[in-house]
Amino acid sequence: MNPATELTELLSPLFSLFGENVWARAFALLLIGFLVALIIDRLLIRLLTHFSRKTRSSLDDQLIALFSGPLFQSIVLLTIAAVATVFQLNETTQNNLTALLQSYAVLIWSLFLVRFARSVLRRMAAHPLRFALLRNQTLPLFENIAIVLVVGLAIYLIFNAWHIDMTAWLASAGIIGIAVGFAAKDTLSNLFAGAFILADTPYKIGDYIVLDSGERGEVTHIGIRSTRILTRDDVEITIPNAIMGNTKILNESGGPHTKFRLRVKVGVAYGSDIDKVREILLAVAENDPGVCVEPVPLVRFRTFGGSSLDFELLCWVDEPVLRGRIVDALNSAIYKRFNEEGIEIPYSKHDLYIKGWPSQTSLANTEAATEVPDGNNNIRQAER
Fold first, then answer.
1. Which of 51, 235, 247, 278 is the most buried (most CB within 10 A)?
2. Which tens digits make up the pLDDT trace of 127-155?
């Protein structure tokens, strides 16, 4: 027995007051249904709203606001179905009317589920630390998945209400799904890779990364399909997530902080005062406002080179983007201080030694006479 018939039998004592007047019974039933719907909508929903405002979360407020409309309409639909039973329609008409009302109810609650799923997902995306996989970049993907699931369930319920066999439809959908999967395998690969990148977070927006292929730049966008980085030449590079997920990435902004270590290599001539060199390098780093005070700059005497004593100045900057400017400033300051202090920076020198000049006989043998035709005359020229 369906709910409409049960409701009619429940109100049968009330119908006795109207005798055998079918229209009076139908009107009374319709009036009672609307009154119940209004009472639930005005009193119960308001009461629940009053209690939900005392909670910290706003999700329950949104749920009650979304729940009000579908609940009211569902009661009205149930009332209409009960009114139809009063008129004792023929079986075909009754079944078609019931299927139509059920289909409308499915659409109402499907829309409610879609809105509720969006509210929940957006609420979760607002707390990326608690839900690593769900964030603003992946939110459209999960919203679309929720819509597809709700629409699929709605189609099944509507077909079931009209007593339509779903076997053939499900078989066709499976074949179509396989074909689409093969055709869009690259796109799906990028989608899944993008979800894993956002969940694993090997890099984030604002980080400076270096790829295996040598590109270096700032991450400006992490999408479901691709990642974009902006190079120092203001050139934007778009890389599919499937490639990003299977390549080695050097994240210069990763680690416990965003500071980046600079290594400034310099060589001085043999015989230089290494203590003086160390003092100058440290002074240059400490006087540069772009160099971090903590960690402190360091100087390392690395090796005895082929023509120089090789030193390395180690210091930190706040962000990797400052690397080029600070290295330029340090190199300029080091060169000026070394000139002032008389410390030589060796460079590559080549000495040419000539054992002797060739003899006159050898020079004479290198001369060759050739004939070059020029009109009717032959001109003899000597080549060296």
1. 278
2. 777 776 677 767 777 888 889 899 989 99
Each residue of 42-62: pLDDT tens digit? 787 777 777 777 777 777 777
Nearest to 298 by CA among 339, 261, 256: 261
Distance, CA of 203 to chain centre: 10
352 CA to centre of own chain: 61
SS3 at position 368: strand
Number of H helices, E strands in the chain: 13, 10
Q: How far apart are CA 70 and CA 45, in angstroms?
A: 12
Cβ atoms 328, 343 nearer than 8 A: no
Its pTM surpasses 0.70: no
Give the residue among 162, 156, 163 at the shortest CA–CA distance from 99: 162
Whether 209 contacts 229, CB under 8 Å: yes
Tell whether omega for the bond before 297 is within 30 degrees of 0, i.e. cis: no
The closest of 314, 347, 344 to 330, measured between CA atoms, is 314
List C-alpha distances in Å: 208 to 137, 220, 223, 226.
19, 10, 17, 16
Distance between the two ends of the chain, CA-based, in angstroms?
118
Rounded to 5 degrees, φ, ψ at 346 are: -70, 155
